[in-house]
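Subject: design request, 294 residues
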């Protein structure tokens, strides 16, 4: 394993390599790392990754804080995330899909539409891509947002997860979004056969260059998808890894949790009903709100 590198300008004499190495090691002990920003101390996967440790000390997040409307909570956290210097694109989200045989895959996409009444999150993509094919074949997907905050503040870092069924956005909604994209992005959407293998970059560039921008219309192979959430989980970092997790599980008309994997993982209906509270959001959707162990 390589030794830690020392930051240029660090307050250790650079000629005194052994001392500098010792100090870097000491500074990176788990205890010190809590109080010390990691920036510049770990630069390579060959450094001691087990020493990277941020303590998400900060305010707690209770069921009462979560309220009875998960989409309002999402909205509030999104707004706070978009104010943070640590969050460049609050609408960037990991989209996990699975092939019909259960093989999972995950990639980033951009949240482009929220429908609070439906509890849905929309994005746009090539409908023949791997992600879209898998979404449409299985009818399900999961999303995850990570918004790093500032340890020690009221917002030490937050994660939101959503699981649900996937639907296509209607063509008019897809067209309305497509026409708002910069013309170069519209050309690229037409030019790219997303997820397919190609011989080289030049082939793609030549295909894009051959397209007359004034003729570009919404291709049949491009459009919007949305995930209608049956589960929404809000995670806020807490000190010593005892984080706060509050989940909302959509209930059917018989007050049964729609997401069986979530219910099973939570200990089954009895555990959920004992630990949880049934709440109704302003759109009339009933959710079982429960705290999960971290
Ligand atoms: C921050 C970020 C945002 C992205 N947003 C989108 C998006 O909104 N739609 C999209 O099709 N691909 C987006 N991509 C590219 C995808 O991650 C992915 O490479 C591509 O869609 C092909 O995925 P697939 O082959 O699994 O279908 C984004 C990538 C990053 C890093």
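Subject: RE: design request

Done. Sequence follows.
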């Amino acid at each position: 394993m390589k030794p830690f590198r020392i930051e240029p300008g660090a307050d250790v004499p650079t000629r005194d390599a052994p001392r500098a190495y010792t100090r870097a090691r000491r500074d990176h002990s788990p205890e010190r790392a809590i109080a010390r920003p990691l920036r510049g101390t770990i630069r390579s996967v060959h450094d001691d990754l087990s020493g990277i440790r941020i303590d998400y000390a900060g305010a707690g997040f209770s069921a009462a804080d979560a309220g009875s409307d998960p989409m309002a909570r999402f909205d509030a956290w999104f707004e706070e995330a978009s104010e943070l210097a640590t969050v460049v694109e609050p609408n960037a989200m990991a989209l996990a899909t699975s092939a019909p045989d259960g093989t999972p895959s995950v990639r980033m996409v951009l949240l482009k539409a929220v429908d609070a009444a439906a509890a849905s999150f929309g994005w746009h993509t090539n409908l023949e891509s791997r992600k879209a094919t898998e979404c449409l074949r299985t009818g399900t997907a999961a999303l995850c947002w990570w918004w790093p905050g500032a340890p020690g503040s009221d917002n030490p870092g937050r994660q939101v997860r959503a699981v649900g069924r996937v639907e296509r956005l209607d063509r008019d909604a897809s067209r309305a979004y497509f026409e708002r994209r910069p013309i170069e992005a519209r050309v690229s959407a037409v030019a790219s056969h997303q997820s397919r293998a190609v011989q080289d970059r030049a082939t793609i560039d030549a295909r894009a260059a051959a397209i007359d921008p004034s003729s570009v219309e919404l291709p049949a192979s491009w459009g919007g998808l949305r995930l209608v959430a049956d589960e929404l989980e809000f995670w806020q970092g807490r000190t010593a890894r005892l984080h706060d997790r509050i989940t909302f599980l959509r209930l059917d008309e018989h007050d049964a949790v729609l997401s069986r994997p979530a219910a099973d993982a939570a200990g089954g209906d009895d555990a959920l009903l004992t630990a949880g509270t049934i709440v109704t959001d302003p759109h009339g959707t009933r959710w079982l709100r429960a705290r999960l162990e971290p």
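The first strand starts at residue 92 and ends at 98.
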